C-alpha cells in the first residue's frame, strides 16, 4: 500500500464507505458478504421479470447501463463540484429512471434523494457530496451484481 496515497472518508464513517476506499487501494479481497450485499442491490423478483422479458438481449441492456453510468456519475460529480443545482437535478433524475429500469431500486432511491436535495435551495453542498459518495459505492455494487447475473444467465 502506498502510504503517500491519502483519500478522505466522509463522516460519519460507514462500513460501505470504508470498504470502497479499501477496495481502491488493496488487492481484491471479495468474500461471501460482498456477494450478499451485491445481490441485495438488485430487486431480484423484478430482475427475473426483466430476464424473461429481455431474453438473449439482457447482456446488451446490462452493458449499456454499466457503460453509461460512469459517464453520468462523472457528470454528476462535476455538477456537484460546481454547485450547479439544475444540472444535478437533471442528472439525478435521469439516473433514477435508468437505475429503476435496471432493477437497482436502492440506487434509484438514492438518485431521487439527490434530486430532492438539488431542488432544495437551502440544501448543504456537503450533504450532496456525501450522498454522491454513497451513490457511487452503491453503483459499484449494482454493476457487479448485474454482471454476475448476466454471467449466470449465460451458463
Molecular structure report:
The model is unreliable at 1-6 and 27-38 (pLDDT under 50). The chain is mostly helical and 155 residues long. Helix 5 packs antiparallel against helix 6 (105-119). It is elongated. It is built from seven helices and no strands.
Quick rundown:
With 155 residues, the protein is mainly alpha-helical.
Features of the shown structure:
155 residues, 75% helix
Lay out the secondary structure.
Layout: H1 15-25, H2 32-40, H3 44-54, H4 58-81, H5 85-101, H6 105-119, H7 125-154
Helix pairs in contact: 2-7, 4-5, 4-7, 5-6, 6-7
Return the structural class. Answer: mainly alpha
Low-confidence stretches: 1-6, 27-38
| Average pLDDT reading | 82
H and E order? HHHHHHH
Work out the helix count.
7
Quick one: how many beta strands? 0
How is the biggest beta sheet arranged?
Answer: none
Please report the distance between the alpha carbons of the first and last residues: 37 Å
Q: How much of the polypeptide forms β-strand, as a percent range?
A: under 5%
- Rg calculated over all Cα atoms: 16 Å
- What is the general shape? elongated
Instruction: State the helical fraction.
Output: over 70%
Amino acid at each position: 500500500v502506498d502510504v503517500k496515497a491519502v483519500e478522505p472518508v466522509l463522516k460519519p464513517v460507514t462500513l460501505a464507505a470504508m470498504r470502497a476506499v479499501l477496495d481502491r487501494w488493496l488487492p481484491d479481497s471479495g468474500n461471501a458478504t460482498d456477494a450478499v450485499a451485491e445481490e441485495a442491490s438488485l430487486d431480484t423478483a423484478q430482475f427475473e421479470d426483466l430476464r424473461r422479458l429481455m431474453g438473449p438481449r439482457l447482456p446488451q441492456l446490462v452493458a449499456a447501463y454499466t457503460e453509461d453510468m460512469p459517464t453520468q456519475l462523472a457528470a454528476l460529480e462535476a455538477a456537484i463540484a460546481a454547485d450547479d443545482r439544475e444540472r444535478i437535478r437533471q442528472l439525478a433524475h435521469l439516473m433514477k429512471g435508468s437505475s429503476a429500469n435496471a432493477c437497482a431500486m436502492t440506487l434509484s432511491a438514492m438518485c431521487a434523494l439527490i434530486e430532492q436535495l438539488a431542488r432544495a435551495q437551502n440544501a448543504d453542498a456537503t450533504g450532496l457530496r456525501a450522498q454522491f459518495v454513497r451513490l457511487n459505492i452503491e453503483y459499484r455494487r449494482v454493476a457487479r451484481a448485474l454482471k454476475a447475473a448476466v454471467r449466470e444467465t449465460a451458463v
